[in-house]
Amino acid sequence: MRTIVIGAGLAGLVAANRLAAGGAQVTLLSKGIGGLQLGQGTIDVLGYTPERVTNPIRSVQALTGTHPYARIGAERVLAGLAYLKELLPDLLVGDPEANYQLPTAVGAIRPTCLAQPSMVAGNLSSGERVVIVGLRQLKDFHPQLVAANLVRTDLPGGGRAKVRHVLVDFPVREEVDSSALTYARALDDAATRERFARAVIAHLETDEIVGLPAVLGVRDPQAWRHVAEKLGHPVFEIPLPPPSVPGIRLNEALTAKAKAAGVRFVQGTRTVSFRASGGKVDAVTIAVEPAGREFTADAFVLAAGGFESGALDMDSHGTVRETLFGLPLEGADAVPLLHGDYWGGEQPLFNVGVAVGKDLKPLDASGAPVYANLWAAGGIIAGSAGWAEKSGDGIAVASAIGAADSILKELA
Amino acid sequence: MTEVNDRPATHDRTGLGFAGHELSRASLDACVKCTICETMCPVSAVTPLFTGPKFVGPQAERFRNGESVDHSLDYCSSCGTCTLVCPQGVQIAELNSQARAVMKADHMPLRDRLIGQTTLMGKVMTPVAPLARWALGNKAIRTVMEATVKVHRDAPMPPAQSQSFESWFAKRPKPTKVPTRGALVFFHGCAGGYFEVETSKKTVEVLEHLGYEVLVPRQGCCGLAQQSNGLFDGATASVLKLCDDLRSSGKDLTIISSSGSCTGMLKHEAHEIMGVSDERLKDVGTRIRDTMEFLLDLYDAGELPTDFLPMPMTVPYHAPCQLKSQGIGKPALEVLRLIPELTVVDSEKVCCGIAGTYGLKKEKYDIAQAVGRPLFDMVKATNPELALCDTETCRWQIEQSSGVKTVHPIWMVHAAYGLG
Lengths: 412, 420
Prior knowledge:
Helix content of chain B: 40-55%
Shape of chain B: globular
Number of helices of chain A: 11
CATH class of the largest domain in chain A: Alpha Beta
Low-confidence stretches of chain A: none
Order of helices and strands of chain A: EHEHHHEEEEEHEHHEHEHEEEEEEEEHH
Number of domains of chain A: 2
Oligomer: heterodimer
Structural class of chain A: alpha/beta
Mean pLDDT of chain B: 88
CATH class of the domain at 305-416 in chain B: Alpha Beta
Strand order of the largest sheet of chain B: 2-1-3-4
Strand order of the largest sheet of chain A: 11-2-1-15-18
Strand content of chain A: 15-25%
Largest sheet of chain A: 5 strands, parallel
CATH topology of the largest domain in chain A: FAD/NAD(P)-binding domain
């Protein structure tokens, strides 16, 4: 069975892995290397409804109507989380029944369901003592900002933490402002970690939990444990703005698993057109110079994202379209699509997407599949603004699992 | 050769005029400053001298009107990784290649003019191969070369051969097998014509074994080495002359090449970097296939015989940047998987460092070595005797720096078909 997955984000990579594991021949087409490394390297399932969510799976079960989770089903969310934890045991931990509440790079608290083991000591309780350690030559991480905000934040479980900050000199190459990735590459080396621990340990006080920028190794998944052991304190990583090292870890790990499972990657060119006959998609074409290149398959998964990647597009007349297959869109005729109240309610535009059935096939206005062998996963699905409610990762994973399982069952 | 030291004129839509004003600016505004290109850049990973593709590319481009104010641009190796990984379709590498051509236009180093002359090198070296091999292996001569033309004394040099591919093809006994699948045109490139002659021979023998008639028209250089050194006028003349050469064998035939870099030049670089907009180029670019891409297409269509002999060994494979940027994935990996008992390990490394002629240059040599080091280590650890890679200069770099013999993947296919 030949399948094509379009998109290299979380949905695309999970679908490709799941299909390959199920015995399908998979080709993954992507314009770039996906956007996973722009994220925090965690799996948000549901963070706000708009109240802060403590038990994500229970809140998912309570959703109804046109919300993606109501279409996909909470059982797919559970299956997806279990699948990811089993696929990447070194990288993702967590409980669908309990969100972690983790400090961000501005010292706020962010709910997420699965996190990297290097982060979870940041799930703070009232009265705990924390020191945020910054590195003077690292750009984009400001320990004073983190500490000053965190110390005045009411923890979700009640109470506050006692937080202070320090700034440590620790250059890793001859420049004044190294990126997080430059640090992470340097800290993949055990000798550099020893030197790092020596630079930090002098600043620590008894019983403190140590908050560090998320730069503790990029290739070595045990690097952070080594640092914690050397310091003799619990440590937690705080993800930075891009380049996000935890995001890179997650992207590389899922990509490596897919390659090991035999997924063929064709990268660097956008998928721009398709050919269909008899209600089925026969082929898609990538815009490679000079004349394009066609790929045929038995099943296609559209996992190309939404507006951020150009999979959805709105022209100057306010007309929204899905740019590859021209699929019917739900919510595209809302009036207005965008309102001018910047601080007001959610913009209707961001709920626009394709409607899918339980089997994750895009549906037309009558509720019938648009093409018999086309599935959709991730941000293209209508009915939610993932960044506002922190549901994008969970929707991507659950819909990818749903689409892959549906393909494997239908084409077996 | 046309001189290239004129300032670009705004009405000039090709060459330097195009470079200074046209192409990549169209993709510039799509940059969302996400940093993905910066994280994948093999050069900025090993040296702070190159400030990274985003900074030098879409950001600095906004400040350019003619020559760049920031010369760290010259440390870009033009490997093309940034364009390949960009999720927004920004032509970062193309932007940088164009800006560098403009920057160097009125002070082009002699060295950069010379190392673009790949056909000339082959023509000079082949008749005197033993002498050329001796000279390029001679420390004293290389030291003088480093001091005068600034080519690093330890940089890999093409292996001079005693017989050119053209001469072999003309003089060999004619194939006895009657073609059953029609004709193909073979494009050997300068390296495949003069230095990597064995790769060209094996490619032709595999194609003939599959039942094709192989036509080899007289052919010149694609101009890639000139292009990557910013000599756009000369490169444009070369690539169009080559298109005429390749079209002389027939208008509808598929063109096959085992020179991955030259294939990339014909498919997209001449158009995207230099703005060459010519029907002949488009025609050739549409018909040309990398050898391994062609074999994979045959396999996908159910037309590739898979009666391969078992090859019980493990070999490292490195996909060159210029192959990856053709949007064909890594076809060699898929084809070699069909050979029984052969395990091919993908290096998964971004770049070998050489980037055409970048790693030859005295001032870039150490950077290129640092870029390639993880690859050299991987190659040595996987198989100290044999490695695979699709393009010539990358093979020379890997072989020189790791000490591991490095050949084109077609060598494995050739052996597995029992062709010697």
